[in-house]
Amino acid sequence: MTTKVVHSEDPLEHWNDITNLQDKRVLDLGCGWLFQPFLSTPEYFLSRGASLVVGVDVSCGEIEKLKENYPDHIFICREISEVQDITALLHVYQPQVIKMDIEGFESLVDQMNAQDFVSVEEIAVEYHNPVCKEILERRLPEFGFEIFALNQFGWFCTDTNIMGILHAKRSA
């Protein structure tokens, strides 16, 4: 498993372990970028060849701006706080790639099953507490994924047992 230190929220560094986006459908859970001086994650995925980005965030202002700038893609203002919030999106849009940064609600993966991830080839999750990390490390392999990277933050919280970015691909 590779590990690196990530020094910013810039998608060019933060999410660059997601390498094969060409012609992929991406579900971007937590797509807001809070006025950062770099690309939003939807812009990053589109610049890497994604065919469709479905972005979800609780920040309606940012969602409206993304809708305006990228009318051929889907942006939804919604909080992700229940397992059905995720499973409904997975079943409707059948993403091949998932990026998840939903502030502790990553733990909802524990209530999901392998069938929910049938279309998914790759998943990247920013986890926010040790319970979420444990759930992801236990459940993703049960769903047929191999964890290939666990990245630590170079600011704020540098302990990967508390916060970090986990990347997994469908096992061969």
Describe this structure in words.
- This protein is of the alpha/beta class and 172 residues long.
- It has a single domain (5-170), classed as Vaccinia Virus protein VP39 (Rossmann fold, 3-Layer(aba) Sandwich).
- 26% of the residues lie in helices and 25% in strands.
- It has helices at residues 11-14, 41-47, 60-69, 83-93, 130-142, and strands at residues 5-6, 25-29, 52-57, 74-77, 97-100, 122-127, 145-153, 164-170.
- It has an 8-stranded mixed β-sheet, sandwiched between helices.
- Strand 3 (52-57), helix 3 (60-69) and strand 4 (74-77) form a beta-alpha-beta unit.
- The longest helix is centred in the last third of the chain and has 13 residues, at 130-142.
- The protein is globular.
- The mean pLDDT is 92.
As for the CATH topology, it is Rossmann fold
- Counting DSSP E segments of at least 2 residues, the number of strands comes to 8
Give a short account of the largest sheet.
8 strands, mixed
Instruction: Report the helical percentage.
Output: 25-40%
Structural class estimated from helices and strands: alpha/beta
Percent range for β-strand residues: 25-35%
In which order are the strands of the major sheet placed?
Answer: 1-7-8-6-5-2-3-4
Structure described in brief:
The chain has 172 residues and is an alpha/beta fold.
Helix-strand layout with pairing:
Layout lengths: L4 E2 L4 H4 L10 E5 L11 H7 L4 E6 L2 H10 L4 E4 L5 H11 L3 E4 L21 E6 L2 H13 L2 E9 L10 E7 L2
Question: What attributes characterize this protein structure?
Answer:
eight-stranded mixed β-sheet, globular, alpha/beta, 172 residues, 26% helix, Rossmann fold, 5 helices, 25% strand
